[in-house]
Amino acid sequence: xxxxxxxxxMSTPVITAAPSLPLPQVKNLMxxxxxxxxxxxxxxxxxxIVTIGDVRNACxxxxxxxxxxxxxxxxxxxxxxxxxxxxxxxxxADAPVVEAARLMLRHKVSGLPVLDNGTLAGMLTESDIFRAxxxxxxxxxxxxxxxxxxxxxxxxTSHPIV
Length: 162
Hints:
The protein is of the alpha+beta class.
């Protein structure tokens, strides 16, 4: 079976934000496009990423004593650059999907910006990987464990199911 690459299943085009985009607009963009992460790009260079968790953490509690006008004024001053994460984990477009999944597990992230020769080319998320599995594009190797009843040979072995 041919190795499935990130390029084959990544989401494109990439919806991005400028570092200067106010936080309420980042939040609206995520809601309108039904996405949970937005790469932040400046001069065609990936500089960070804002996740829905970052947006939630930056927004005030519902228990605030500020008026809606004060909140709006203050939130309009917070930008994508103020809340974005830097030091990103990325993957190359021609890398195997399995390698991307390993990176996501190792770094505990649910999405990776995809680069093609240093340029942002797509986003790969857990959902993209799940879709590939369900569509049969990515084959999972499943194991079954066999335990014997013979007391003299009590052992457990795992066998791949093809």
